[in-house]
Design a protein that fits this description.
By secondary structure, the chain is mainly alpha-helical. It has 19 helices and two strands. Strands 1-2 form a two-stranded antiparallel sheet.
Length: 485
């Protein structure tokens, strides 16, 4: 039951209508039942993989809070983390690592071993496992008290708008909202519907239409010429509109139910550095890796280096470089069991390390060339360079294999065949329409006339916008890209 299908909207209408008709103390029951029903429609066989880990982590967190002895708390944490990561490894990475280590086992044993494991990947497992990991770590480090109500905790883990592809909400923020009584407010409903409509436009009109152009370029790269370059740019916006569109729909649904979902994207292609990009792109995942992997690893590396410098390099730089490479490698692996994702993560890791190492050098070069006297030009150049670095990395991310990525690059030519130009211009029109909408949304205070439009005209404009989405939508059955991860 995908977000952009009629079946889901009928389900959502029933949930929202019931939500505001029952007392606040019973609403968690409705949300939990709706979330489990929503998840079971994809494959009910995997429902225990959502319920059982939730119960185990709930009990483990209570025990962590009550246990005072450091050794026992650490052991309980390790066992819990091992269980969660083990479940993720079996269902998502067993086939990849089995194939990877099979030649080594053959060499060691001398026998013709074979490995065959085909498990259906439970949808959303990467997201709800990371929710459970962050919760148990926060309780262990006493950043958050353990939740005593099993029902509320189960709602946090399985909340259906965020279950399939995030955002990866932190427990403290969500549970406090879940406990706050919410009355029906037409303004909240308006905000939610606006977010949902904009998310549907981004997904069904912009992203899915760009996908037609991008997929054709990837499937038939020979003779495409500059269309291959345009496909790289279009894919950058396709994956952004697809994933941020999902986030807008999810946050819009949260808003209908009185929740404030976390912002997961903040115009990432307006970034002027790779580090800034990762504070704007998939924010919930970026901050998860920062808080639970990068910072602990960086501090651990710096503690192990006894002097200020090691091989003439500062301990702080060693900590940053090692932690960043590890973090971005695992970030790539989180997206899927493939070398393309790992290489994509390592590319961004190298980007970030080079940016960190050359920060002072770039400032000196800006002063020597006089570029610092033109700050706007400097910002534009930084934005263009950052966008192209990110777009190049999307080639590896999009490619099924490294061989196909290389083949795609080899077919590139500086000529533009006439075939496909109209499709490119048509896609560019919708892309510019989307960028204009994003600009107006971000700079709403600069357009005060929008607030003076009479309500009937607003309603008519909203209805017209929905009609245009229905007319120009490509296919209502296209799944969101991040459902694969």
């Amino acid at each position: 039951m995908l977000f952009h299908t009629l079946q889901f909207w009928l389900f959502l209408l029933a949930v929202v209508g019931s939500y505001y008709c029952i007392p606040h103390r019973f609403r968690w029951v409705l949300l939990l039942g709706a979330s489990y029903y929503f998840y079971s429609l994809f494959d009910w066989h995997y429902l225990p993989l959502l319920i059982i880990p939730s119960l185990v982590v709930y009990a483990a967190a209570l025990r962590l809070e009550r246990t005072q002895r450091t050794g026992r708390r650490r052991l309980l944490l390790v066992v819990t983390l091992f269980g969660l990561l083990g479940m993720l490894a079996v269902f998502k990475y067993a086939g990849f690592f089995g194939t990877l280590f099979l030649p080594l086992l053959r060499m060691l044993t001398g026998s013709p071993l074979r490995f065959s494991l085909h498990l259906l990947l439970p949808i959303g497992i990467s997201f709800y496992v990371f929710k459970l990991l962050s919760y148990v770590l926060d309780v262990y480090y006493r950043r958050l008290p353990a939740e005593t109500h099993p029902g509320l905790f189960a709602v946090y883990v399985s909340f259906f708008p965020q279950l399939l592809a995030g955002p990866i909400e932190r427990a403290g923020t969500f549970l406090s909202q879940l406990r706050t009584p919410m009355r029906f407010d037409p303004e909240i409903i308006r905000q939610g519907m606006t977010l949902i409509a904009w998310g549907l436009f981004k997904k069904m009109v912009v992203a899915d239409r760009l996908d037609l152009y991008v997929s054709d370029a990837w499937e038939n790269p020979g003779g495409q010429g500059l269309h291959l370059l345009f496909a790289i740019y279009f894919y950058a916006f396709q994956i952004y509109c697809d994933f941020s569109g999902y986030t807008d729909i999810a946050n819009g649904i949260c808003r209908l139910l009185g929740f404030e979902g976390m912002k997961n994207f903040d115009m990432p292609y307006a970034s002027r550095s790779i580090s800034e990009f990762w504070t704007r792109w998939h924010i919930s995942l970026s901050f998860w890796f920062r808080d639970y992997l990068f910072l602990p690893t960086a501090y651990a590396v710096m503690r192990r280096i006894k002097s200020d410098r090691f091989f003439f390099i500062r301990a702080e730089s060693w900590g940053y470089a090692i932690a960043m490479l590890l973090t971005m490698c695992l970030c790539g692996l989180w997206h899927g069991p493939a070398w393309t994702f790992i290489i994509w993560g390592l590319i961004h890791g190298v980007y970030l390390i080079v940016s960190y190492a050359t920060k002072k050098w770039r400032k000196r070069m800006a002063r020597r060339t006089g570029l610092h006297q033109f700050p706007r030009l400097q910002k534009v150049l930084a934005l263009v360079v950052t966008f192209h670095l990110v777009s190049f990395s999307w080639i590896i991310f999009r490619a099924p294999t490294l061989t196909e990525a290389w083949a795609y690059l080899k077919h590139f030519r500086f000529r533009l065949p006439a075939n496909g130009i109209l499709m490119a211009l048509f896609n560019l029109f919708f892309l510019l329409l989307f960028l204009g909408g994003e600009f107006v949304s971000r700079h709403r205070q600069q357009f005060p006339l929008l607030d003076r439009i009479p309500r009937p005209f607003r309603i008519a404009a909203f209805a017209l916008f929905l009609c245009l989405i229905a007319i120009f939508a490509v296919d209502t059955e296209n799944e969101f890209i991040y459902f694969r991860f």
